[in-house]
Amino acid sequence: MDSLEFKTDMAFTYGEPSPMGPGIVRLVAPNPSPLTFKGTNTYLVGSTSLAVIDPGPDSDDHRNAILSAAGGRQITHIITTHAHRDHVDGVAKLQAETGAVTAAYPRDPEAARIALENSPSGRFFVDYDFSPDMAVYGGDTITGDDWALTAIHTPGHAPDHLCFVLEGRRVVFSGDHVMAWNTTVIAPPEGRMADYVASLEILLDRSDDVFLPGHGGRLNSPQRAVRAYLLHRSWREKSVLDALTAGATTIRRIVPRVYRDLAPQLIPAATLSVQAHVEYLIEKGLVASDQPLTPDRDLSPL
């Protein structure tokens, strides 16, 4: 059975490119935090013309590191896995420097408006105004001189999340969908657990050699990691349901039973994660609650 083991070692130096394979280098942005680990990973793909995947935050130092790593080669495409600010805030100035085409899954403006008004999860870390030059959907391929990247739509962490497969290689740029250093935050309404589980299952049918994630080090046994993620979510779901059955009848009461000895700054994220599991349990007909769901709304097992 595959168990979830976190890999928190990561060899890098801010501002210096690290080779990840032929025609792939990684730069780590200087935006470390409890939710971004060491920082956002930016990847340069190609040998002649280049694609930049996830330019990261709006940082002069990081942008200069990207341009230095390009070494005079043309950056033709700026590709983002999703529109969270730690991935897209650096897009505008990098595009101004390079003239590159931006490419991403287009977000629904109306859904964005609703989320902005009502979401404790999306208010600060989603760029609702981000609009790519090139709309990319699952199955679409973006091509350069010596590279091609095919998108897999993997909603869950974000509705617009894409992973990218490097054609001709068993390499997937997995964004925040699958990482080695920690589990992915699913924070409603920006995140949806049912979508996340379904998106993980899509990756199980593949036979990749490596995932290169948006944060943390590479995953060298990616399908095993996906199975472990699915198992972890199943265990977490059971622990949420067990806590509810034992008398913790609100999300706020469930959190300390599921996440023990949690640092105070992580309680909001844990609360949203439990909410995501409760929403999924409601969809599966295992829990009942009045709507809209809130941390203090009464829950009952069915």
In short:
By secondary structure, the chain is of the alpha/beta class. The chain has 2 domains: 18-220, Metallo-beta-lactamase, Chain A; 232-301, Arc Repressor Mutant, subunit A (Orthogonal Bundle). The protein has helices at residues 60-70, 85-88, 91-98, 109-118, 193-204, 222-245, 251-258, 267-283, and strands at 18-21, 24-28, 41-45, 50-53, 75-79, 101-104, 134-135, 141-143, 148-153, 162-166, 171-175, 210-213, 287-289, 299-301.
Secondary-structure map:
Blueprint: E1 18-21, E2 24-28, E3 41-45, E4 50-53, H1 60-70, E5 75-79, H2 85-88, H3 91-98, E6 101-104, H4 109-118, E7 134-135, E8 141-143, E9 148-153, E10 162-166, E11 171-175, H5 193-204, E12 210-213, H6 222-245, H7 251-258, H8 267-283, E13 287-289, E14 299-301
Parallel strand pairs: 4-5, 5-6, 6-7, 11-12
Antiparallel strand pairs: 1-2, 2-3, 3-4, 8-9, 9-10, 10-11, 13-14
Report the portion of residues in β strands. 15-25%
Helix content: 25-40%
What average pLDDT do the residues reach? Answer: 92
Give me the CATH fold name of the largest domain. Answer: Metallo-beta-lactamase, Chain A
Rg result: 19 Å
Low-confidence segments, ≥5 residues, pLDDT <50? Answer: none
The tally of structural domains comes to 2
Main β-sheet, spatial strand arrangement: 1-2-3-4-5-6-7
**Envelope shape:** elongated
Quick one: how many beta strands? Answer: 14
The CATH architecture of the largest domain comes to: 4-Layer Sandwich
What's the CATH first level of the largest domain?
Alpha Beta
| Classification by helices and strands | alpha/beta
Order of helices and strands: EEEEHEHHEHEEEEEHEHHHEE
Number of helices: 8
Euclidean distance between termini CA atoms: 30 Å
Biggest β-sheet, characterized?
A: 7 strands, mixed
**Name of the CATH homologous superfamily of the largest domain:** Ribonuclease Z/Hydroxyacylglutathione hydrolase-like
